[in-house]
Amino acid sequence: MEQILREKVKELLKQKTIDLFIGYSISDPDKNTYKPFFITDPRQVDKLTYNSYCFNNLALYLTKDELKNRYKKIGLLCKGCDARAVITLCQENQIERDSVYIIAVTCNGVYRDNQHYEKISKDNIADKCPGCKVTNPPASIADEIIEDAIKDDKDNPVNMQSPISVWWENFDKLPNETKWLYFKAEFDKCIKCYACRQVCPLCYCTICIADQNLPRFFSKSSDASGNAAWNIVRAYHLTGRCIGCGECERVCPVRIPLMKINKRMSQAVKEFFDYEGGLDKEAPPALVTFKNDDDENLFHG
Amino acid sequence: MTELFKLSPFELNAWMDLLIAAGYPVFAPVFEEGTDKDNLYFKKIKKWNDADIGKLKTKRGPKELFFPINEDLFSYKYNGDGFTLEDPEIEYEPFIVAGLRPCDTAGLDVIDKLFSWDYKDEFYLKKREKAILIAFTCPYTDSSCFCTSVLGKYPYKDGSDIMLTQLKSKDYIVEILTEKGKKLLSHLNKVINPASKEDLKELKKELDNIDKSIKKIKIDKVKSWLENNFEDDYWKNCALECLSCGICTFVCPTCHCFDIIEDRNLDKITRRRTWDSCSFTDFTRMKVHQPRQEHFRRWRQRLMHKYYYYVNNFEVIACTGCGRCIESCPVGINIMTMLSEIDDKGKKLKAKA
Amino acid sequence: MTNIYKPFVMEIIKSFQETPDVKTFRLKFKNDEIAKNFSFKTGQFGEYTVFGVGETTFCISSSAFQKDYIECSFKKVGEVTTALERLDKGDEIGFRGPYGNWFEIDEWAGKNLVFVAGGIGLAPIRSCFLSCLAQREKYKDITMIYGARSVSDLVYKTQLNEWEKRDDIKTIYTVDPGGENSSWKGKIGFVPTILEKADPKPDNTVVITCGPPIMIKFVLKSLKKMNFEDEQIITTLEMKMKCGIGKCGRCNIGPYYVCKHGPVFSMAQIKDFPLEY
Ligand SMILES: Cc1cc2nc3c(=O)[nH]c(=O)nc-3n(C[C@H](O)[C@H](O)[C@H](O)COP(=O)(O)OP(=O)(O)OC[C@H]3O[C@@H](n4cnc5c(N)ncnc54)[C@H](O)[C@@H]3O)c2cc1C
Ligand code: SF4
Ligand code: SF4
Ligand code: SF4
Ligand code: SF4
Ligand code: SF4
Ligand code: FES
User: Fold this and answer.
1) Of the ligands numbered here, which is closest to the C-alpha atom of C248?
2) How far apart are CA B105 and CA B135, in angstroms?
3) What CATH number should be reported for the domain whose range is C8-99?
4) How far is it, in rounded angstroms, from Cα C140 to Cα C204?
5) What is C105-236's CATH topology?
6) Nearest residue CA, atom 7 of ligand 3?
């Protein structure tokens, strides 16, 4: 499938359908890591790769002014979750659908880390993947879909139950106090590097609330109160919008389990509003839609 | 001064535990618990066995022991007819950091210069003065290490008080490098063996092996190119993938930028400093003006600061080649690759001239 | 321990509303010992604390020969300046300083001085100007060219009038076209234009200029036209600051720390700076 991808991108660049393609290339062969790869010259397509170690959500680059101003049409390689991000960006009017060219790939999940694995299994799949609804990316968003056969059987780890949901089922049984202490201890570790925000395709605000000082919402120092405030505010801002790509948790240098929070918030939105972010680009986003019969349970708990 | 001794792992263990028993706070690499369980951090240990000296690649290096992520500078209160200001209560006591790598101590040597030029930053310097540093030569190196290209022949010794190297036999050669280091020896309540000729041969072999395992890049033309090519197009196309997160600077053992902020509590207000990063968009943002709006300007600042500006002011490169930024970058940006590219450009420039 | 980040408490002994958004405070150290030992050189700046809010950077705008108090003038723009603006006579603030380098006014002895200021840029210029006036006999001709967007944006109005009345200095005040009012007797036009009309001669002259970047840019062009050399032109640079003492790393412009190597630079130095300010 790598070969098909390279051919396609070569064509697109040659015919000037796009002026930039963002895909993946190998980063450090010794460590088996892959990184985002920007390509403008069709002769470079041989460096393009794609496999289950290509973790980055490339949709985040679509809202970067520096790229938008420089390239008229950007081509993008999207796994299902990346495609969901593109859909959300369209819904929220951050990008014009016509300014991007989406090559979507069907997905069997990604690995949890960079060790050498033979194939995806329940022991090495990333936590975000099991239960994924977009292993076949929504056709509505793709200009092109590259198929990689998806096994529909129970053995395919993407069809397992989400380990994060399982975790919550048990965790939710604990008293509120205990739950809070668990997350507080996690937030305490935060060093306010803001990598979680920078890597998130949906944290596109030009001046994040965390950087504002008139008024100032919470302290910039990374002490206990400031941290919890930051992590909670970010979670709220992503409620119903987070598309579950898991990038924030992956990049967090102190490994705060951010996906546990995001996933829980998304679940709540689904329960209360029957809405999930990034599945339908025509659907109005849940939390900006006002319904008269809304009982506002989400915020009252 | 250099004095060389030999210790068995067992003796090392006993020595460290004796130091702890003697009241020294000892900080060493320890695996974090919970979700962050595969990252090493410098933490205070209760016994030497708690330290993990298998890899020594701590996530953030030792700088936070001297320049904490958050540090109180003073606090103040309103007492009815005016403000009273109070220094934070800190007692500076001798403490030991064990399990540093040579590049870790090199990082501290870099920051020392900034914190002691004209205005003396006592918050940092007092801790430095009290610290006794026990470095270990690297039991593990990988593809992101390039310290010898920056620091010269392995190992960099200047920053350590004591340096240990484990030989094939598992025994350690202990090099006492300073008076401070020598004092610690007195806590070892038995006669220890000076290293033999044979041991020294083994030591040399071991160090050569480590040196060989470390990637070498050329950087001698980097500075001259940086000095003359601030406006080069290279910058506009470099690191396009960069997210302007601050990870590379937060994990870096030489980055020292901070913000000064106010933290309000019920009864008193504290002025603190907190780590900051030139990668952040608001680092230089003023209300009417932002000189580093585009991300390439921030990346350029980072590289320029490390390999040119800092060198001009302090005669030392603000990078030790530890590779932490490479390891932690979420989008795989590699400073080594960029330095090599720049060095090549520097060479071509020279060739043309 | 000596805590280089801890300010001294000062009291606002007088406050002047210069324009709708610019205020000047006259400040005195609460502690007499500190007051007695304090001195600064013109051009240096300080870090001012609004207790409960934070710290911010202004130059000291009073004369270096004024030993009883210091003054600072500031424009309300953001978090700290907004809070500062709410303070008044009798309130306390914190002060650290003086920091940075200064105008070498003694080296200018025997020369003509031309001051060119725009808007709030008059604050550092005023300190320098007043310090030179305090030793008026050392210099030959002294000219002050000052402009603001409109009449209401002119700062230090009382002092401008006093200066105008003196016959040992030349003063030219101007407002941007459209900024005048019916009682305005000064010039109308942008500072660089007025400067060219005044036509100072470059021989044995130092120009000290400060103002918004756009004004500086055109003032420099005009000076070039009039054959001034870069070495003769002195200005101050502004860059975001926090510590003021070469530690926090924020005010880097190329290999220079504005808080330490600056804020006063000659055009000859700035010419070699990377364009990032
Ligand atoms: C050497 C020097 C002298 C100055 N002298 C004067 C003066 O005499 N009068 C005057 O009105 N202004 C002066 N300024 C500019 C003044 O410092 C800023 O306007 C002021 O800091 C804005 O603070 P704020 O909190 O209201 O703004 P915010 O934008 O809310 O900034 C928050 C913080 O960022 C920093 N900061 C923001 N903008 C600047 C800036 N332009 N320069 C330095 N730090 C900044 C400060 O620490 C400030 O507290 C000077 C700046 C420098 C560097
Ligand atoms: S969540 Fe996992 S399985 Fe689903 S599209 Fe993303 S990477 Fe693929
Ligand atoms: S990435 Fe992690 S450490 Fe960094 S700001 Fe986000 S939660 Fe905090
Ligand atoms: S860690 Fe990587 S992405 Fe983040 S600021 Fe540094 S170079 Fe950019
Ligand atoms: S710049 Fe990177 S390699 Fe250099 S010292 Fe910092 S973290 Fe280590
Ligand atoms: S300017 Fe940037 S690279 Fe230099 S020390 Fe500060 S954060 Fe690090
Ligand atoms: S203001 Fe902190 S280094 Fe200059």
Assistant:
1) 7
2) 8
3) 2.40.30.10
4) 9
5) Rossmann fold (3.40.50)
6) A190
